[in-house]
Structure formats: structure tokens, C-alpha cells
Amino acid sequence: MRTVYTSGPLKRERVLETALAVAEREGFEQLSMRLLARELGVSTMAVYRHVTNKDDLLDGLVERLLGELEIPEQSLPWEQRLRWLAREVRALAHRRPEVFGLLLRRRAVGEDATRARQAALRALRDAGLESKAAERMERLLSTVVMGFALSEATGRFEGIDVEDEFERALELLTRLVATQ
Amino acid sequence: MRTVYTSGPLKRERVLETALAVAEREGFEQLSMRLLARELGVSTMAVYRHVTNKDDLLDGLVERLLGELEIPEQSLPWEQRLRWLAREVRALAHRRPEVFGLLLRRRAVGEDATRARQAALRALRDAGLESKAAERMERLLSTVVMGFALSEATGRFEGIDVEDEFERALELLTRLVATQ
DNA sequence: ACCTGAACACCGTTCAAGT
DNA sequence: ACCTGAACACCGTTCAAGT
Known about the structure:
The structure is a homodimer. By secondary structure, chain A is mainly α.
């Protein structure tokens, strides 16, 4: 009834990948340990060998999503790096509308979580902000970017050209950074 | 084992109120139709007379939460009205940390949903923004305000003085509105 | 008209048992 | 070492039955 991924032994990597696929295909609420196991062609409890419980599975998904963000080259001007990051997040929300919300519900702790944040902080420092101000601005920017992306993914801004809206918001905020 | 609310007949109002209390006390994930019924001192299916299903229950909670927002007097200067609204949202997130996230996950459709939005739009028009610009700014502001409030409720900004941070962000954005 | 209990098709997770 | 099936304590919801 379902596609069963049969490539090699069961690994955490494949568990997460399949969980992501199931969530996007069936809807996030439908993702269960049992359905995931069925999809992997394995007993429910076999999944627990690669994931300590469902919470750990969700943490793994968050980490995987963050790992999909491409970090801009340091050589680019700071404005372009900020825009790059913002668009990466927006693209992620587009690609994974069902699971994107996880990023705003769960605290990201792993290494991938900080990569994007560090890149944003570097860009803001390069824009001339001192350390504390850069951190504050990063929190403001990430809130806006994540919030917009989520709003689009959940349909809160239906009927609105979010592409355009998002670019304008970025424009405004970048100007705000420049005048800090 | 649990407090049973015994005041009068079962009404939608009391169902929602109790659901809110249960969610905040036991955690949002623990809120179930069965536990809610137990709490109301009634059979599970009796709850279904006041709520068509769990989805409808959650929609009801969203509506109730939005109804808790106090709208500022029109006589206040526009900056103060915006600040008022922002603080109301932040206070709501503080009061209902467990259920606040619902507001960002579900589309609000009822009347209470638009009250706050209309008040913000009026303030922005009074600030001199033309109609389209006011709508765009309202979306930006609401995203920031809701995003910050959620981040605080979920602990994303742990160790940070969100009170201070929030005021600074508002300050920045208000200046942005003034210079539009 | 309003409430009930049993039943159905699901969950996450523990644990003893199999290879 | 790795996987399994049965079991436990839960879900949301349908439906026939009670008052």
C-alpha cells in the first residue's frame, strides 16, 4: 500500500528522512511511530533502536531541517548574506510546510541550529553593529523571518503576495540595521 | 482527584473555560476530550453536545484567547495604541503559555480575531500610512509581536530579558512607522 | 432533549521473548 | 546485537440505547 524504502540497514538517517517524507505526504499530525515503522517496512519497536522516543524523533527532524539551510559565503556583502539566509528559511518553509512549524515550537540545541545564527551574527557585526546590538538584531530578524515563513506555511496570509511582502519587510529591516 | 466544576448546566462557555484551565495546568499536549469530560464531571460524549469535535474545541479556544485582548481607547495617540496592543499580546502569552501557540498554528476567523487587527490598522492609518502600507505594516508588526511572545512562551529566548528586548524592538518599529 | 457506555480504530511505550 | 509481538494505558469519534 505504501512505498517501502529497502536500501540497506535501518539507520537514524533513513528513519529521519522517511519521517520527513511521511509528515509531508500525510500531514504532520498523522506522523506516528507506528506509521513510520510501517513505512520503513519494519516492526514499530525496531524504530526505537535509532530514536529514543517520539520526542527524540522530532528533535532529529528539527536538526535535519536546520541542516538543509545553506550558509552564504563570507565574501558577500553583509546585506546579501542576510537576504540569503532569509530566503533559505523561506524556501525551507515552502519545501516542508508540514514540519516547518516544529522549528518554532521546539528549542533547537544541536550544531546546525547555531550555524545559521552565527552567520547572521557575523553579517550584522560586519554591518557595524557592536556585539550586544548584533545579538538583539539577530533575534528580531530571526523572529520576523521565521514568523513570516510560518504564516505563509499555515496560510495566515492567504491572498497576499508574501514573496513581495517579505522582500519589502527585509528591505525595511536592512535599512534599520544600516542606520543603527 | 480533580476539581469538578459544578456550576449550572454544561455550556460551551464553561467547556472552553475548563479546557483552557486543563491545558494550562496539565500542558497543552495533555488536553484531551476525555480528560476534559472527566474534569467537567460528565461523560466524554456529553462534551460533544457543545463542541462538534476537537478541532472545533481548539477553534473555540483561539476565539476565547483573542477575546481576552483589551482594545485601547481611540483617544490615545497612535504610538500608545500600538504599544498597548503589543503588551496585551505579550501579557496573554504570559498568562496562557501552554495554549498561546495555537494562535500561530490556526487561522483565526471569528469576530474577536479582527478586533485587535482593526485597532492596529486604525492606529497605523492615524500615523499617516495609506491603506496598503498600513496593512503591510500591520502584518509585519503582528508577526514580530506574536513571534516574540511565542518565543518567550516556548523558552526560545532563555536567559534574555525579553521585557527589555521587546520594548526596544517596538521602539525601533514605531520609529520605522513614523518615517514611512 | 440530553446524556450514557460500549465499541472501533487508532496512539506511545514497556517488556519478555525470539534469532 | 538486533528485531518481534503482546500488552498497557491512553486517544478521537460513531452509534445504539437509555432517561
